[in-house]
Records
---
Amino acid sequence: MPWCEECAKYYTPNSVNTDGSCPQCGEVLQLGENAEHTHDADDQETNDESAPWHFKLMVVALVVYLGWRFVQLVS
Ligand SMILES: [Zn+2]
């Protein structure tokens, strides 16, 4: 979120000027946090893709292990 140090205020990306400056004082706002948010979203997307894959593998391994233990108990 764009932060203006002059006004000590956060602005929504839509409320700042088109060149990224503060609508109140004209100071160019810090957009570093915005870039970090984009990065976080990318990381999240990568995790969302890889997490279920590992999770499924873990569940399959657990089911196979428990099934094997069950067969051992019965026989
Ligand atoms: Zn300002």
---
Amino acid sequence: MKLATTYLGLKLSNPLIVGASPFCDNVKLACQLQDAGAGALVMRSLFEEQIDLEQRAMVRDIELAASGSAEATSYFPEYSEYQLSLDRYLRQIQGLKALVKVPVIASLNGYQPGGWTDFARRFQEAGADAVELNLYNLATDPNISGAEVEADMLETVKSVVGAVHIPVAVKISSFHASPVNFGLELEKAGAKGVVLFNRFYQPDFNLEDFEVHPQLKLSDSSELLLRLRWLANLSPHMKGSLSATGGVHTSDDAIKALLAGAHTIQLVSVLLKNGPRYLYTLLQGMRKWMEDHGYESVDQLRGALNQRRCPDPSAYERANYIRVLQSWRV
Ligand SMILES: Cc1cc2nc3c(=O)[nH]c(=O)nc-3n(C[C@H](O)[C@H](O)[C@H](O)COP(=O)(O)O)c2cc1C
């Protein structure tokens, strides 16, 4: 049975990859993930704000450790709060590349054009096999339209793509008015793949202290459904790769993402909950499902449930929406 897949032009032993997270901060853990079967590893992100801060400090010869976040607004983390400095990040890429055989994907996180995008070149020089650019942004300025937000994002993608010859994947949120069109615009801007979707870490109100509390809850399988819908809609149109991130917790979840059209499936919460060895269990489950259902390769099942055979996906979605609402009786 062939679990091998191609992602961003890279050959992977199987579609399960470790998503951007703290896992790769630790080379020993990264090796354990590889040994348990990870097809590739995505490192945690370096942030636009972090790169700007360090680069501005270098230009002005400011001691970062002493100056703290004087250059940043008070909302942002102190410089020392970032887990990896730029130098450490580059050394981490080299360390991982020296010890693991699977592709290492470095991650940049920002959404507006600027000098920071050139940092992708430093990833490449350090040995990264690809870059994942996370365009995380919550647009709150009433004067900026959705079109302007997306134009900035596309410019950012072009800058990153222009800085490197390794492939660039772009991780996006589901909050675009026309996600399929935006996915294709990302391809035109040079992205070799799209990663669906960012999770928004939704803050809650505390009714006692009147504070807003940011919180990071791990996902569950219910979050996969949004990804399945848009993977199924985007995959018939994309030339490049698609990756699912968010809500893959079981081997059935992984199979569903492939059926919707994903080339890879990124795992974070499930591995934080169950540890690296769980990758092996998931791969075993996928093999069993494929065997039971007569599939010999993941290529065979990829996209089998996407919207390719649906002549009018918009009408189909709208019809299902109406039917579901009509199905309730009280
Ligand atoms: C502790 C933690 C750290 C994360 N760090 C990053 C990051 O640095 N960059 C990024 O793009 N995504 C980051 N993510 C998001 C994950 O890559 C992933 O998209 C998200 O957790 C959804 O996948 P899951 O359902 O498998 O957890 C992080 C997630 C967690 C839980």
---
Amino acid sequence: MKAAENILEVIGNTPLVRSHSLAKHVKANVYLKLEYLNPGSSVKDRPALQIIEDAEASGQLLPGGTIVEATSGNTGMGLALGAAVKGYKCIFVMPDKMSDEKIKALRAFGARVVVCPTAVEPDDPRSYYSVAARLAQETPGAFLANQYHNPSNPKAHYLKTGPELWEQTDGEIDVFVSTMGTGGTISGTARYLKEKNPNIKIVGIDPVGSIYYDFFKTGKMTEANSYLVEGFGEDILPSTMNFEFVDEVVRVTDRECFLATRRLVREEGIFAGGSSGGAVAGAIKYAERIDRKLNIVVLLPDSAARYLSKIFDDDWMRENGFLDEDWGGGTVATLLTKKPKRIFSTELGAKVSDVISLMKDHGISQLPVLDEGRVVGIINETDVLNHLLENGGRDEKIDDLVETQFAIVEPSNRIGLIGQFFRQNKIVIVIDGKKLVGIITKIDFIDYVSNQI
Ligand SMILES: Cc1ncc(COP(=O)(O)O)c(C=O)c1O
């Protein structure tokens, strides 16, 4: 009988499938490594099992122990599979931007899931890294899987993913493309492939907002910004990420990731998730620059099933500006061209009388408020009026009147993004790099949309 002894034995040996539709305009052959066909539906089954086995071997994980991890979901699934078969308990700590499906899947395995805020610094005690470390210390018999710094993570890919790819391609792989989260996948696979053939190019894919692209280009750590695609990109530099083996980093936007993900499912029947879309979008950008028939292998980390209420939901996509609207869409930059170029603003610490003069002289009803060049809020005529009606003085500082309910967009953002901010009663400010370049009111938006229909 050809039966596996348990579910852990069927991890790996995932198929390699050629891409046709998304890659049809490029010269290269693009092959997709379908990691969503692992039993936990992601590539992370591989490092999870390696981490457990190495911890058992070193005595860090004893029978009946508890596995603790900071995970965006997929490593949790892999660890939970291992724990189910081997009889361990699990506690997982996740950032709050993760999809409900991921949280529910972990709870289905009986794991305890703790959700932490995404928008805090990694060393903040509320961050999911810090909370996981604390829980591991407080729980008797706990073992912190520590995928960001555990060498078993890249080792899994060195021992399995790399050799599989080498065999599946008969050694005829020219380029390996991978997203970079902990860096385990790219670092371990690349180390193996480069040992086999140092000419194989390794391309890392990074979402706009993550630190990796800038770090690779400049060697400097920059500040991370938020992005919506899940599972890759970082705001810290994990020790499992080894740039020694990376030849190039290609950057992708959320929009590129999500549109490619939808196309993969609809046009190729490849039921993969958002980072897979990102990996393919980045691989195609890379392939578009190369006019040779290379064999490019792209690793697709996880399954579409975890993103049905996001990437595959038209309302969610439209609200976030990723689908073009019936009225034509366009970017924030296009809308700004219809407005006067000059932008007025005021400074924190200015007097109410200064703001009244500015508003009166230029016929404007709201002003961005800056502090050392950075936008910190908005002051509008209603705030000023209320202040005067409540017997506030004209010589008083405006600081207490400044509203902080505003949203920042960039000129390249789709206009569809703005609608949701108006529904939340936020004022929209446009920043290009660090420079204030515009303020968009509801009437600007109405004007623009009505002219497009
Ligand atoms: C969906 C998804 N994509 C990409 C990655 C990145 O893989 P790695 O951590 O090996 O760099 C992960 C890792 O958790 C993931 O969950």
